[in-house]
Amino acid sequence: DPRLLYKHFKVPEKKWCIGLKRNLACYYATGQVIAHFDDDDMYAPCYLSVMLKCLRDPKEAFILRSMNQYNQWGSDQSRQEIQEMMHALNFEDTGHGGQPIALPEKAYFWMSSLLKGEWGAAVCKLCSWFNFSLRERAWGHCDATESEVPFTKDTRQEIYGWGFSLLYLRSAWQAVPFLHIDLGEDLDFVYSFREL
Prior knowledge:
Blueprint: H1 18-28, E1 33-35, H2 47-56, H3 58-70, H4 76-88, H5 105-116, E2 123-124, E3 128-133, E4 138-143, H6 157-160, E5 167-169, H7 170-175, H8 185-194
Helix pairs in contact: 2-3, 3-4
């Protein structure tokens, strides 16, 4: 595929950490949106189009989750859960739009383009997915939002890690690049946007 760019660096395999490798890949990327894939994972044909839809309109992510989980527009419980998530993520509909949040200066250059452009969020990722167990030869479902702990800004780290499903604006990466670490670079990246 001529759209793919292959870069080879002659360094020992463990010499560079995952965060550095991600930053190099983002540096060479030319598109507006960057998507992560794991080479040993399978993705649905509609994966990118659905994730792009959620990046354009973050409220769609909660509608899709509710419809998928309950096969309808949502029960009272799902509506309450969605309202809690919307509140925690500052997307709640008060009739006057979302609540204002204080942004650090480095975020203004890309945040203004979000507000003017086609994008409604800087980053999105999956909160649930299917796993196949080779030992049991069966499919299982992992939903990182299923927890006894109430959804707050400081809980449910499982939702924000797992870099195999990240989709984000290149301009957002330019504002907050990955830390040069081997474990947790994806979690730190997503958390950086939660704090903006």
